[in-house]
Amino acid sequence: MKKFIYTALIGLSLLASSCNDFLDNNKPQGIITGDGVTNPDYVDNLIISAYAIWITGDDINSSFSLWNYDVRSDDCYKGGSGTEDGSVFNSLETCLGIATTDWNINDIWERLYRCITRANTALQILDQMDEDTYPLKNQRIAEMRFLRGHAHFMLKVLYKRIVLVNDENLPIDDYSLLSNTTYTNDEQWQQIIDDFEFGYKNLSSKQRDRGRPSKAAAAAYLAKTYLYKAYRQSESSHKVESINTADLEKVIEYTNPVIYADEGFGLEADFADNFRPETENGVESIWAYQYSQNDGTFTGNLNWGMGLCTPLLIGGTDFHKPSQNLVNAFRTDPEGHPLFDTYNSENYDVLQDNADPRMFHTCAMPGFPFKYNPAYMVERNDDWSRSKGLYGYYMSLKENVDIDSPYLIKGSYWATSMNHIVLRYADVLLFRAEALIQLGKDIAGGIDLINKLRNRAAASLSQLGNYRADYKVSFRCSPYTGTYGKEEAMNLLKWERRLEFACEGSRFFDLVRWGDAEKVLNAYFASEAKVCTIYTNAKFTPNKNEYLPIPHTQMAASNGHYTQNVGW
């Protein structure tokens, strides 16, 4: 069972947040000096505050899971009551009518830079500490640089041209001189890598407090960042012009299985256990946001960032709904391999006989229990669809819990105390597989790693024990046994990454990284338009829609030092 009492990382967040309240207006305050600032208790509070903002600074409309911004992918629909409910996100999912003045474009920018500000404030004081009086100095610096790198990474995949606030001791007058073109695209990635590399060299293995990143977490993030950096985009467009082999070799280095075995990381025996509060912080969870309830502080330690994604039946708002295209992707042939056909409109609303078990851990569907509980059978009616079927009748399961669960809490919106995993060991396996395949040195080795996930998927039936008998489901998910060339192997890799991480907030960013967004999404829009009027005029425009525009508010305040993204 999940412990409701969380560690001091969050339990002291109210106290710590008072240290940083003055920073949360997103304005630089200069270097902090004076009596008492190097007191270990003071710096500990600043560090706690830098962690706490990832919980307290999260929001249903700008979730740090990035689900709101992944509605641009073919995995999911926005949901809600209709297109005008969260209309700015409808603009994102259809690529129509997006404006630099839209509130959601600026909101996530500001929230992530507040996270960076908190990390930098702690770093300022840590830089002034003496190791004799604060023995954990380098360890805590590594943690804060990890958090800063995490925020910069998220900004980078959202906006591409970002402002790197990577000097915690920058004089206040120099903030007005910061530019988002100081570094090239590749140099920006390298600046983020530098923070994670410091973390890798200085973080402890097997951190005592859950929520603090370990050496393996830094390695996993290094592998992820190098993989994004490897797909070299043009400076004048978003086209992927080359794939850098030196970066791919770094991915291989930082996905060395020994790094993760030393800390006890591996795959959960059952895929479902990654998304159940009863089994969280398991062997696959390399780094996660730690949520809690009844910890003696306040309800802000719950996961409110997914508060829009709960089912209508219990008073939820029914956002973030899996697409039919995604459901089709889980269907398999009699041998247990994907059909590789998600666009056949004849398959819409028809559950085929053979399916990858991950479908039932990812998507709630009519005729099946919601989160394995037969007391709540999903139906094709207005009790389950707030849009009266406009966005279909599927719901995303990974961020939800059993409706009867003690981990589901009602406030202004529904929230849970279930953790959100940022990095899991399955990521590491697929990062490594992708690098092996792209390098062309060990394609068979890459396929073997993909097969580890397919074999795990086939065995992920502990929560689905009665589905064969009661719902006539035929589970099929088999490993690949053939010999594959590089292009074919990459197609298998891309398909597997979609199935494994569906609705976890990474699909759109994967498509952009690979250079596949235009082809995949315009085919998706054309298919969806046949059955859903939302997509009638939807069109992905290359060299524009890969990234959000730099918000108008930020451009106006930059004194001419920011350059707008291509296409905007």
The major pleated sheet works out as: 2 strands, antiparallel
Q: What is the percent of helical residues?
A: 40-55%
Straight-line distance between termini: 49 Å
Strand order of the largest sheet: 1-5
Number of strands: 14
Task: Give the gist of this structure.
It contains 20 helices and 14 strands. With 568 residues, the chain is mainly alpha-helical.
Can you walk me through this structure?
- With about 575 residues, the protein is mostly helical.
- Helix content is about 40%, strand content about 10%.
- It has 20 helices and 14 strands.
- Strands 1-5 form a two-stranded antiparallel sheet. Strands 2-3 form a two-stranded antiparallel sheet. A two-stranded antiparallel ribbon has the order 4-13.
- Helix 7 runs antiparallel to helix 8, helix 8 (about 185-200) runs antiparallel to helix 9 (about 215-230) and helix 9 (about 215-230) runs parallel beside helix 14.
- The N and C termini lie far apart (about 50 Å).
- The relative contact order is 0.14.
Question: What does the secondary structure layout of this molecule look like, with pairings?
Answer:
Layout: H1 8-11, H2 13-20, H3 40-56, H4 67-70, E1 76-79, H5 87-94, H6 103-128, H7 137-159, H8 185-202, H9 215-230, E2 231-233, E3 240-243, H10 245-254, H11 257-261, E4 285-289, E5 319-322, H12 324-329, E6 354-355, H13 358-362, E7 363-364, E8 369-370, E9 373-377, E10 395-396, E11 408-410, E12 414-416, E13 420-424, H14 425-439, H15 443-458, H16 467-471, E14 474-475, H17 486-501, H18 507-514, H19 517-529, H20 552-557
Parallel strand pairs: 6-14
Antiparallel strand pairs: 1-5, 2-3, 4-13, 7-10, 8-9, 11-12
Helix pairs in contact: 2-3, 3-6, 6-7, 7-8, 8-9, 9-10, 9-14, 10-14, 14-15, 14-17, 15-17
